[in-house]
Amino acid sequence: MRFKNALKIAFGNYALVFKDLLYKLIFFAIFSVVIGVIFEVGFRPVYNLAADFLSDGFSVFGAFVTGKEVNAAVLSEDLTEIMDYLSSHTGGLVASVAVAVFAFYVLRFFTGISDCVVMISVNGHMTSLSHRPYLALLFENLKHVIKYQLIEAFTAVIVTGAAVALAYVFIAFTSAFGVFLAVLFSIVIRGFYVTVMSRLMTNIVIDKMKFTDAVKNSFGGEKTYFWKMFAQYVTLTVVYVYAIVSAAVFTAFVGEFLLIPFFTLLLACMRQVDYFTVSKKKYFIDYDTIIVPKELRENDEKLLNDVDI
Q: What's the predicted TM-score (pTM) here?
């Protein structure tokens, strides 16, 4: 029911998809230029050496399959060149990686601002069916959005780095089965992260709480609902990964231009449905539909029973 309500609200605010898309395209373009420069300066030699190694590897494999003379020594030479380069340019490579990580943090910070604005707009719809201009919401709430994004972007870098490292370990040590484990644990980590950050985001951005109060409130309340949220966000992550991969295969990445901002909107709607549910507040889906929590319905019925007619 929560997912169904969130989906209806998302389609009722579909215009936000295009606003979010325009905002993020601007920052992705800037980020691509920065990463392109970093890659060209810091990683191009490594890329060329790795490309030579792969090319020679395919040649050796092809020769083995066709029964021709196999010259496996060339692979050893390629690996030696790669290791020599890495050992002699460690400082430069570490600096390049550090700059790339910082660039990812900056990208996450600025693109996450749009995620916050989308959620604020969805909150306005669910509270009073209001649809205020995107930029007006951005500048009115900029202080609290920035406060949250400084935290979110930092934790996102750490979580992403941990997920990538874990995926590398699984793939490196368990071969083909490692791909399954890497995807599985990445989805679980992503679901847990979104669950933890969901209430923190609404507490800071919507309720304007201080950070310490927001953290305390995020981990308070019904513990069982946390696991309901976790199951919900893991499911959404699976659907998201499937949709993104399918769109990449069948639409040559064109579908991503709509899917990514749409899932941003859907995630914001799910977070707000959870927020209103945990807070026991009523909310609008559309002009004709309003969701009233059970607790409020019981209070209204009690008041009506006490009224003398």
A: 0.80
